[in-house]
Amino acid sequence: MSNSLRIRLLWWLLVPLALYVFVTGKTEYDNARRTADLVQDNQLVASARMIAGEVEWRDGFLNVDVPPAALEIFASPYRDQVFYSVRADDGRLLAGTPDLPARPLLAPDVPDSYDTQLHGQRVRAVDLVRLMYDNGATRPVRVTVGKTVRSRDAMTQQLWRPQLVRQLEMIALAVALVCIGLTFELRPLMKVKDEVADRDPMQLEPIRVERLHTELRPIVDAINQCIARLGVQVAAQRRFIADAAHQLRTPLTLLGTQLQFARQQEGLNPALDEALAAMHRSNRSMVGLTNKLLLLAQAEAADNSQLAMEGVDLVPLAMEVVEDLALLAQAREIDLGAELHGAAPVLGHRGLLQALIANLAENAIRYTGSGGHVTVALSATTDTVTVSVIDDGPGIPAESRSRVFEPFFRASNDTEGTGLGLAIVREIADAHHGEITLKAGEGGKGVDIAVTFPRATPK
Ligand SMILES: Nc1ncnc2c1ncn2[C@@H]1O[C@H](COP(=O)(O)OP(=O)(O)OP(=O)(O)O)[C@@H](O)[C@H]1O
Ligand SMILES: [Mg+2]
């Protein structure tokens, strides 16, 4: 059987209803047929009595004149044929057709109705016996009147058909109502499906569907419990990464200091100095990685609303970032400019928002060759605040643009880096309901990346 709920329910409904209609239909047909038989039998008996009343002795012989009225009572629009016969007890035919079948004699004056066949037609007939007295002896005379069954069948149909039609209409109505009702009643289930299907993989809030059926509630509750368990698991993993990064930072910093101290020792073998320098570089990138991991964990926690938000103006933050990176830009002979006018208030976490701008600006400076230009700009409308960083460097190939926000994805390995910068940017943007747009800069050159936040309204 099909797995569709609609079809299964229809089966549950249709099979018993069809059986019910079949059984009641048969009973109703039998009842209708009995009623039609009764009506026809009454006519037949009346006719037979009329004919029997005309049997008389004439000149010592039994004789009968069939009155026209005895046959006229059968007049009907169905053009039924009427047959009759009057026979004496010795089998002599007094009147009528000889073809009506002979049957055993019955008690006098008790009509007997039966179905029979005559000339290939179905016939309903009645036998009636009348006793004729002849000099103290009795002679039974049998009158048989038969009529084809067209009008009887028509009457049966007229009595039975409307009931059948009504029952079939009821079934059709039930089917239509089940289909319409199911379509309406399945809507909450479809809503639950949409709620689950449209979810971001990391969206771990419980499913909320209004006006949920009692039957669906346990399913949604079970899914919500599963989501809650997943949330606990994810939070534990994030905490573990944050804790691990935090724990690693102190020994790595210590190691860096010690390596620096070791390299300052006099009379150092050049090969050993080279090895120490390489160790120092590795140490630096490990410190960079743990710092970014920690930042990413913080940003993810903020995305789950675990950080307190405050009103922050992005202008001084961006200014600070530009000042911090000025030296790096100078070293790489890059013209670092800022377009920071007016106020750009957003609701958020100061440290994370600064990290967002810093990561974008750092990327622009890092990936733009010497002689390039990098601009950090802020713009605001009545509803939004947009921070954008534009450079005229090599740009990001269109096919990599959707992937640069994945953790550890790097478009090229020519320079050092962890591949976490833009993943952090995305987490911070999400935590602040920000929208990121990434496109090529002016004239298809470089990168134009912008994050638009909802503007904070002053209290
Ligand atoms: N302004 C840019 N110009 C050209 N390529 C860029 C620019 N910004 C990012 N990319 C490309 O996107 C990749 C991902 O950037 P992301 O900041 O996430 O990582 P990263 O800079 O490689 O490492 P990290 O920032 O963690 O030290 C980079 O490796 C680089 O290839
Ligand atoms: Mg980066």
Automatic annotation (TrEMBL):
| Location in the cell | Membrane
Q: Which residues form the Histidine kinase domain?
A: 243-457
Q: What is its main location?
A: membrane
Primary enzyme class: transferase
Swiss-Prot/TrEMBL keywords: Kinase, Membrane, Phosphoprotein, Transferase, Transmembrane, Transmembrane helix
**UniProt-listed Enzyme Commission number(s):** 2.7.13.3
MF terms from GO for this chain are: kinase activity
Q: Which reaction does it catalyse?
A: ATP + protein L-histidine = ADP + protein N-phospho-L-histidine
Q: Which SMART domains match?
A: HATPase_c, HisKA
Q: Which InterPro entries would you find in this protein's record?
A: 2CSK_N (IPR013727), HATPase_C_sf (IPR036890), HATPase_dom (IPR003594), His_kinase_dom (IPR005467), HisK_dim/P_dom (IPR003661), HisK_dim/P_sf (IPR036097), Sig_transdc_His_kin-like_C (IPR004358), TCS_sensor_his_kinase (IPR050428)
Report what the protein is called.
histidine kinase
